[in-house]
């Protein structure tokens, strides 16, 4: 995916859209689709869809920003591409932006949501975090917790963490980090709401690991200063928002950056304690 943002409008009206799995406590309708291109499965998803107002969210843009952030920090993740396109839902054409990603499963792998895998395989009284440590996933989970604090991810439920298994090879791994759309200012739909948003507020979030507080969940990480390979720098703002002036207002982009930078500085202070 050399071009992260495709500004030239594409005709994707041939795609058929279906509801994604509902996540507890998450408002909104999120539609997904898929196609096969040159023998490779490609997934598509939309931002928050309203049957009367159309596509009103900007979750797909958040995916690209987080994709770029994780690249800067050296975190393995699913890569996304943001595409300007015409799509059709229930006979009506919408001019919108959507996300495209490839299948992260390798040949011969099957996937299970971590919540289901945990329920089947856990020991009595074993916490979700302890279960992940036992399976060798502590670094992955610690990184996820740190990332979710930085972006204020509201929706890290148990199906947004997946276990990939290859029965023939007797191998198992955790899928790369994915699905970060319900983050940053996802609850804001106007510049006025954006300006009022408290960038360091500890809002309740849907977390499978830990508590409903992304800030409190940082207490689970014992070696915070080893999580990221690289640091976020002020000059990274340009990389994060390249070509996004077509999608987000300047007020919106600046607020996301202020939020991310403030949370990064807070995280660095915790690393030095």
Model description:
This protein is α+β, with helices and mostly antiparallel strands and 273 residues long. The chain has two domains: 5-102; 110-271, Phosphatidylinositol 3-kinase Catalytic Subunit, Chain A, Domain 5. The chain has helices at 59-73, 114-121, 128-134, 138-151, 191-196, 236-240, 250-271, and strands at residues 5-11, 18-19, 31-37, 40-45, 49-50, 54-55, 81-89, 92-102, 110-113, 155-156, 162-166, 171-174, 206-207. The chain has a six-stranded mixed β-sheet with strand order 1-7-8-4-3-2. Helix 4 (138-151) crosses helix 7 (250-271). The longest helix has 22 residues, at 250-271.
Net shape: globular
Number of DSSP strand runs: 13
Biggest sheet overview? 6 strands, mixed
Gyration radius over CA: 19 Å
The fold-level CATH name of the largest domain is: Phosphatidylinositol 3-kinase Catalytic Subunit, Chain A, Domain 5
Alpha-carbon distance between the termini?
39 Å
Question: Uncertain runs with pLDDT below 50, 5 residues or more?
Answer: 21-25
Which structural class should the secondary elements be placed in? alpha+beta
Helix count, per DSSP? 7
Q: Secondary-structure element sequence?
A: EEEEEEHEEEHHHEEEHEHH
Beta-sheet strand percentage? Answer: 15-25%
- CATH class group of the largest domain: Mainly Alpha
Q: What CATH architecture label of the largest domain applies? A: Orthogonal Bundle
What's the number of structural domains? 2
Residues in helices, as a percent range: 25-40%
Physical arrangement of strands within the biggest beta sheet: 1-7-8-4-3-2
Give the overall average pLDDT: 94
